[in-house]
Specification:
Layout lengths: L2 E6 L5 H10 L4 E5 L10 E6 L25 E4 L1 H9 L3 E16 L16 E12 L4 E7 L6 E4 L4 E4 L11 H12 L7 H16 L3 E6 L3 H14 L3 E7 L7 H11 L4 E5 L1 H8 L5 H20 L5 E5 L4 H6 L17 H5 L2 E3 L7 H10 L4 H4 L19 H20 L8 E15 L2 E14 L7 E2 L4 H14 L3 E6 L13
Parallel strand pairs: 1-2, 1-3, 3-4, 4-9, 10-11, 10-13, 11-12, 13-14, 16-18
Antiparallel strand pairs: 5-6, 5-7, 7-8, 8-9, 15-16, 16-17
Helix pairs in contact: 4-5, 4-11, 5-11, 7-8, 13-14
Length: 505
C-alpha cells in the first residue's frame, strides 16, 4: 500500500499531520525520526515534523538528509524546514521574540506547486523560537509573512519544500490545501477510505487467523465494538467476545450493551462479576488502589472465562494508532504500554490481534458507520475503565453505586432529550464523600451531595466545562433530588483541564 512517511522529531502536532493526510484519503505512517524503514518501495513522499529543539542545539534530533532528499518528495514543517537549511549551510538563528499564534502569508509565489490556489494574506499558525535568516544556494524563497521573511522555500532541482509555519493546524486556513498540493506533487492516488480499509483488513484477518479461535474483551466502547464487528465479518463464529460487568457500569448498561451486541450477530459471553469486585474493593478509598484492584480483577475474570473456550490461539484488542505512537518515544524507549489488558497476552500464551492499530479515533468511527453499526454505539462518550469507581469518591458500596447510577442515568438521558449529548465530549455524575443538610417535605434531611460534570474537548488532553443551559441544569437538579433516594443537593463542576482533570479521581 502506498504511503506518506512522517518522521517524528518530537512535535506536539505530529499526530495532527497524520490525521490531516488521512483526511485527504491518503495512507500515512508516523515513525521516530531515526527509524526510517529499510523497505521504501511504497513510500510516495516524506514529511519532516516540528520539534521542541533548536537545530543548532548539540543534542537536537538529526538525520542524514542525503538519504531522503532527491529520492522522495519532501516537505519540512517548522523544525523540519530549518533542519534542511541548517544542514545545507544556511542560517537559523534565535528570533527576537518567540513567534507563536496567528500570522498571514504575503509575497506568495503562486507559480510554485506547493502554493497552488493558496490565497494572498492566508492565515497561518506559527510556533517557533528560531527563524531562517539566510537560505543556502539553490533554496528559493516562495512565501513570507509580516514578521517572517523566509516563511517557505523550495529547493530548486528537487521536489523538496520547507515551511516555517504549521499547515496541519486548524488555524492555518489554507493548510489542508498546501498538504493536498504536496500529495499531488507526490503522485498520491489517495485511495485510503473506510471502505478500502475494511476490505483489505478483512482479507488480512482471514489470512492471518485462518480457522483459529479468537477471544476479545469487550468494554462497550467504540474501539472494542468496532474491532468485534470487523473480526466477526472476517472469522464469524470463531470469535468469542467476553463482556465483564464489574458492577461499576452505568445503569442498565450491561443489559443494553449485550442486547446491542446480539443485534449485531456477535457471539458474546456476559459475565456478572459484581460481587467479586465489590468484595475486592471493600474498605478501599485510595483511587490508585481502586484502579489496580479493578485492573487485576478484570484480568482474573477474563482469564477464567477465556480458559473455558477450547483451542483459543489469539487475543484481539481495540488498540488504535495514538496508543501505538505513544507506546514508544522518538528514541525508541517504551514510555507507555499500549495493550488494553497489560500482561494478559503473555500470561495466557496467546498471540495478539489488533486490527485497528493503524487508525485514529475519528477513523474508527467512520469504519464503524461503514460497517453499518448503530449510531448510539459509535457516538458514546468516553467512559473510564474503572467505571463509577473513579466517580464515587471514597469507599465503594452497592448502595453508593445505586445512587451514582440513578443520578447519572437522569443526567445522561436529560442530555439526550435536550439534544445536548453530541455537543458534549464527556459527562457524568460524581458522588461526593460528604453529606449536607436539606429540607424535604418540611422535614430536615441529611443526605448525599452529587456533582454534575460535563466537558467539551477534541482530544481529552485539554477540556473546558460545558456551558449547559441554566434551564436544563435546573430541571436535572430537581429531578435528581426528587427521584434519587439519598441525594438532597446537586452542584455543577465549572473547572477546566488543566488545572483540574476530567474525572475527579
Amino acid at each position: 500500500m502506498e504511503k506518506i512517511l512522517i518522521l517524528d522529531f518530537g512535535s506536539q502536532t505530529t499526530q495532527l499531520i497524520g490525521r490531516r493526510i488521512r483526511e485527504l484519503n491518503e495512507y500515512c505512517e508516523i515513525v521516530p525520526y531515526n527509524k526510517f524503514p529499510e523497505n521504501t518501495s511504497e513510500i510516495k513522499g516524506v514529511i519532516l515534523s516540528g520539534s521542541p529543539y533548536s537545530v543548532y542545539d548539540p543534542t537536537a534530533f538529526k538525520i542524514d538528509l542525503s538519504e531522503i532528499r532527491g529520492k522522495f518528495p519532501v516537505l519540512g514543517i517548522c523544525y523540519g524546514a530549518q533542519l534542511m537549511v541548517h544542514e545545507s549551510g544556511g542560517k537559523v538563528e534565535p528570533a527576537g521574540s518567540r513567534e507563536y499564534g496567528r500570522a498571514n502569508l504575503a509575497s506568495i509565489d503562486h507559480e510554485d506547486r506547493l502554493f497552488k490556489g493558496v490565497k494572498e494574506n492566508s492565515q497561518i499558525w506559527m510556533s517557533h523560537g528560531d527563524s531562517i535568516t539566510e537560505l543556502p544556494a539553490n533554496f528559493k524563497k516562495i512565501a513570507s509573512s509580516g514578521d517572517l521573511e523566509m516563511a517557505a522555500f523550495h529547493i530548486e532541482g528537487e521536489k523538496t519544500w520547507g515551511v516555517q509555519f504549521h499547515p496541519e493546524v486548524y488555524h492555518s486556513s489554507d493548510g489542508l490545501l498546501i498538504l493536498e498540493n504536496f500529495l499531488d506533487i507526490c503522485g498520491s492516488q489517495r485511495h485510503w477510505s473506510p471502505a478500502s480499509f475494511i476490505e483489505s483488513t478483512i482479507q488480512e484477518l482471514k489470512s492471518q487467523l485462518g480457522n483459529d479461535k479468537v477471544v476479545l474483551g469487550l468494554s462497550g466502547g467504540v474501539d472494542s465494538s468496532v474491532t468485534a464487528v470487523l473480526l466477526h465479518k472476517a472469522i464469524g463464529k470463531n470469535l468469542t467476545c467476553i463482556f465483564v460487568d464489574h458492577g461499576l457500569l452505568r445503569k442498565n448498561e450491561f443489559e443494553n450493551v449485550l442486547n446491542d451486541y446480539h443485534h449485531l450477530g456477535l457471539n458474546v459471553i456476559g459475565v456478572d462479576a459484581k460481587k467479586y469486585f465489590y468484595n475486592a474493593l471493600e474498605g478501599v478509598t485510595d483511587p490508585e488502589r481502586k484502579r489496580k484492584i479493578i485492573g487485576a480483577g478484570f484480568i482474573n475474570v477474563f482469564e477464567e472465562e477465556a480458559n473455558k473456550i477450547e483451542n483459543v490461539k489469539w487475543l484481539a484488542q481495540g488498540t488504535i494508532y495514538p496508543d501505538v505512537i505513544e507506546s514508544l518515544s522518538i528514541t525508541g524507549t517504551v514510555i507507555k504500554s499500549h495493550h488494553n489488558v497489560g500482561g494478559l497476552p503473555e500470561k495466557m500464551s496467546l498471540k495478539l490481534c489488533e486490527p485497528l492499530r493503524l487508525l485514529f479515533k475519528d477513523e474508527v468511527r467512520r469504519v464503524g458507520y461503514e460497517l453499518g453499526m448503530m449510531s448510539h454505539l459509535l457516538k458514546r462518550h468516553p467512559f473510564p475503565g474503572p467505571g463509577l469507581a473513579v466517580r464515587i469518591l471514597g469507599e465503594i458500596t452497592p448502595e453508593k453505586v445505586r445512587i451514582a447510577q440513578d443520578a447519572d442515568d437522569i443526567f445522561i438521558n436529560g442530555l439526550r432529550e435536550w439534544n445536548l449529548y453530541d455537543k458534549v465530549w464527556q459527562a457524568g455524575v460524581v458522588l461526593l464523600p460528604v453529606k449536607t443538610v436539606g429540607v424535604m417535605g418540611d422535614v430536615r434531611s441529611y443526605q448525599n451531595a452529587v456533582a454534575l460534570r460535563a466537558v467539551t474537548s477534541t482530544d481529552a488532553m485539554t477540556a473546558d466545562w460545558a456551558q449547559l443551559p441554566y434551564d436544563f441544569l435546573a430541571k436535572v437538579s430537581n429531578e435528581i433530588i426528587n427521584k434519587v433516594q439519598g441525594v438532597n443537593r446537586v452542584v455543577y463542576d465549572v473547572s477546566s483541564k488543566p488545572p483540574a482533570t476530567i474525572e475527579w479521581e
